[in-house]
């Protein structure tokens, strides 16, 4: 999180699947529609098995390949059984027996088994063309003609066409990828989007920020935990209405004041959890908010399971209203309260989206000067989270701030927080020249003043562009920025 004297939360908010968000190109996601399906190491079913997936699991689609023509044949090897063969190819024992007209279950080494395939068919409609059908099923006209022996010019309505089987490569967990049959996966397009957190400004500046192109979602700080009332509510209906008129979605932030004792007081008591959830639901529905971002930090490790339970309960209450839940998580580190208390896999299953706080590599009180978020550090953080959460559910944090590090003659380091706008102004006023730092993939400036060394690892369009490249590389859902107004308006175009 963004740290002043302590740490101030940064948030990224997700957008529900059914609503369109104006922003960058969508991400392709595959949802397993078969009761079970096998992910292979290549687009050949004879390849090794990566894992077995079950209906309902979703993963980003990396690419698609056509299946190789002809039947899939398995040659029985020592130790093979019908069960093992069927499991390897993601089919049932009965399907294998039926395809090969087997009466019993006995196999012999060298026996050739035909593996059944789930064929996709399309019934031709009056307005259909081969081009239209090929595009709809992500295949080629030549493959349609070859598989069906049809006239390339005239299609007869009512004709059933066999769609050539293909394979999708999915980005799985634990850094793995796997190829699955296209017929076992339902593809969807999900919009990427940009979010900005509303912070530290006046009413007029907030209204102006709502007109920023490239900003899709705004997030005001409305809710915090409280000993007296369990939850403090600070809604702004006027802002919510203005955001809606500007075409922006509103996802309020719900924080825990970074207080582990207060958080334990709420999370460990089922009655307190339900009272908080009831208050949140009432407020979110009344303000017509589309979602909520839960930003609990500095949690006692003993509440690790309680936190997942709370998110599960919150999700259950908000889902009927179409209100989505996103949860902030820190980049993995050794701190038991700030990192170890987060069950990222459990939270990823319970919530709709997980927000990776990709900043504060060097925090405000760090004894060592350095980047707020170097590219290698950010890249590694994404890969660590991808071991537990699918990429299309992850939102990457981008800092619209940096720090000016000041080192005195004794070697003692202190820092001053600088927004992108403030940093650019300082560079102009002091006539500094940016130099590229390969180790962080950022621009860098330094100068001496009053015998002290000043260093800034600059956040600008160059660093933002490289972060967005990571979003595309790892098939993440989108980005967000701390905070709206911290950077020039044109920087948002880099994130589109």
Task: Give structural attributes.
single chain; 496 residues; alpha/beta; TIM Barrel; 2 domains; eleven-stranded mixed β-sheet; five-stranded antiparallel β-sheet; 14 helices; 27 strands; 27% helix; GH
General form: globular
> How are strands sequenced across the largest beta sheet?
15-14-17-18-19-20-21-27-12-13-16
The fold-level CATH name of the largest domain is: TIM Barrel
Number of strands: 27
Question: How many whole angstroms does the radius of gyration measure?
Answer: 27 Å
Taking pLDDT < 50 over at least 5 consecutive residues as the criterion, the unreliable ranges are: 1-23
Task: Give the DSSP E fraction (strand runs of 2 or more residues).
Answer: 25-35%
Instruction: Tell me the domain tally.
Output: 2
Chain-averaged pLDDT: 89
For the sheet with most strands, the description reads: 11 strands, mixed
CATH superfamily of the largest domain: Glycosidases
Helical content stands at 25-40%
CATH architecture of the largest domain, by name, is: Alpha-Beta Barrel
CATH level-1 class of the largest domain: Alpha Beta
